[in-house]
């Protein structure tokens, strides 16, 4: 991006004006110390940086420190930083936040939970329930135990009091009947 001569001159004048201000001098002297203090209590680098800026905004708004020596200024800045840390920790405790990366990961994982996907899934479940009624009661029970409760055929055989082979045959016939019903619907 190319800047015009007037814009560049204005930026240089602004920079010189800012660099000469008491807040800029205070920032240059103590920002690193305050940032180091913030990092002891705040995990996120971005949050710590933001809080350091908030401390110096307070210094800009409330210039009681102008006539103080360096030690007094640093003590005052540390007190302001302490209050900012406490406020931040209280805010985080009341409203826990999720990092953007975590939120994006969760968003893609929960995509199947979108309202559209849930509506489609509900329609599919309704159709399946309508088709399951066409099976015998024993076939319905076997399908429910196999797919609803994730049981193996041997476990189902014990529950319905029959042999494993009978359960397999009934399950196979039930699934074939359901396939043919869905195939007819698709045509």
UniProtKB/TrEMBL annotation:
Coiled coil: none
Every RNA polymerase sigma-70 region domain range: 26-94
Signal sequence segment: none
Coiled coil listed as a keyword: no
Molecular-function annotations in GO: DNA binding; sigma factor activity
Record flagged with keyword DNA-binding: yes
SUPFAM superfamilies tied to this protein: Sigma2 domain of RNA polymerase sigma factors (SSF88946), Sigma3 and sigma4 domains of RNA polymerase sigma factors (SSF88659)
GO annotation (BP), single: DNA-templated transcription initiation
Sorted UniProt keywords: DNA-binding, Sigma factor, Transcription, Transcription regulation
Family assignment from sequence similarity: Belongs to the sigma-70 factor family. ECF subfamily.
Designated name of the protein: Sigma-70 family RNA polymerase sigma factor
Protein source organism: Dictyobacter kobayashii
Taxonomic lineage of the native organism: Bacteria, Bacillati, Chloroflexota, Ktedonobacteria, Ktedonobacterales
């Amino acid at each position: 991006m190319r800047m015009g001569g007037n814009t560049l001159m204005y930026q240089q004048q602004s920079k010189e004006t800012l660099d000469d201000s008491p807040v800029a001098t205070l920032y240059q002297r103590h920002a690193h110390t305050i940032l180091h203090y913030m990092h002891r209590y705040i995990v996120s680098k971005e949050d710590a940086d933001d809080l350091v800026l908030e401390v110096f905004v307070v210094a800009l708004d409330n210039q009681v420190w102008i006539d103080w020596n360096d030690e007094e200024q640093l003590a005052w800045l540390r007190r302001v930083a302490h209050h900012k840390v406490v406020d931040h920790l209280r805010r985080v405790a009341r409203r826990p936040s999720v990092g953007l990366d975590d939120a994006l990961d969760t968003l893609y994982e929960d995509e199947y939970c979108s309202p559209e996907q849930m509506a489609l899934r509900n329609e599919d479940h309704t159709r399946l329930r309508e088709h399951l009624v066409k099976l015998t009661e024993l076939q319905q029970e076997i399908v429910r135990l196999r797919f609803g409760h994730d049981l193996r055929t041997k476990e189902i055989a014990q529950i319905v009091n029959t042999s494993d082979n009978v359960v397999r045959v009934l399950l196979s016939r039930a699934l074939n009947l359901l396939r043919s019903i869905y195939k007819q619907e698709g045509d």
